[in-house]
TrEMBL record:
Signal peptide range in chain numbering: 1-28
Name of the protein in its database record: VCBS repeat-containing protein
InterPro entries the record matches: FG-GAP (IPR013517), Integrin_alpha_N (IPR028994)
Keyword list, A-Z: Signal
Keyword Signal (UniProt): yes
Listed PANTHER family: PROPROTEIN CONVERTASE P (PTHR44103:SF1)
One protein family per Pfam: FG-GAP_3
SUPFAM superfamilies recorded: Integrin alpha N-terminal domain (SSF69318)
Organism: Limnovirga soli
Amino acid sequence: MYTFASSFYRRIFLLVGMMVNLLSAVQAQDTIIQSGPVKFTKHIVSRTFISEGVAVGDVNKDGITDILAGNYWFAGPAFRPTMLHTDTLTQVPGYSTSFLNFCMDVNNDGWPDLIRFDVPGSTCAWYENPKNKKLLWPSHLILSTAGNETPAVEDVNKDGRMDIICNDTLAKQVIWLQAPTGKKDTVWQRHIISNNSGLATNRYTHGLGWGDINKDGLEDVLIKHGWWQSPADVTTPNWTFHPANFGEDCANMFVMDVDKDGDQDVLSSSAHDYGIWWYEQQQDAQSNTNWLTHTISTLFSESHALALQDIDGDGQPDLITGKRYFAHNGGDRGGYDPAVLYWYQYIPGTTPQWIPYQIDNNSGIGNRFIVEDIDKDGLMDIVISNKKGVFFFQQIK
């Protein structure tokens, strides 16, 4: 019998089919790229602007890694798209409502779900995997006022579950949200890192990191103004803050001993200008800590996401970044320059080197990209979603 409901769902799935055909139609021929000592095959998954963030996981549990970006997931290895949510896609120029994506099994049912941050200061929600049923993914609110342009997902309390670090724009707090642990438990417990309303609580705060600055065995939270020292009990509110100058507005921040002198240094990149840097930890005669800025690169602007992974398999972490194409729709310095993707080979030493190698000049990065062994061949691959589309850079021998 014909009903309004059946008509509605028929229209929805016709829309889904139309969008899937559109996304599939734009796939192009693969390209092999030599990038210094490594080689990639560039796969254009889609040329449609879907999301500024991307995630990966085995969505359909077939043993093959899939790509998730905004309203869609792409089934590997062919990466055919399936709609999971029905938001309207943003046109270029414009800003996607899918700012960052993460993949994890939120409700402990054995199926990977999608965590999605919308524009800063607005919704963070998780989308429930329908377990191979041909359904849209139900959405569940985590936080309605999630701020910071690079929120982090890290295992804060070491329970094996990934937690969220961000700010609450309305409450003017920096917080971490503890992931649910039991089956069918979907409550994210809130813990306060900082109640200082003037410190990293703006919705558009740039820069966030997670790493053990003081080498006490506990990971700390970094912003460009300094770092909060992790207490032994991470649920303790109001962590001790240590002011430091970690430079300009940035994206991801990493902690490592860059110059191999026994203490920790900091790495970051410019979100809307030129610059990739490392900050050398130094002690003056009075044992005060100072941070000396070293510029790694100014080859391109808008490096709005940064990854630290061993690209060339030499046992040393390398930097991977690129241009977030049209980050401010052409308003940033260098905004109309090519959408490049680079990796920087790390050569350790007391005077460390970072050797730049271009991977591509027509893709760039988004607000979060993935560096992971997608095809399980022992080589690091790169997955990206941004205003240029969705891309899979498969490292090959």
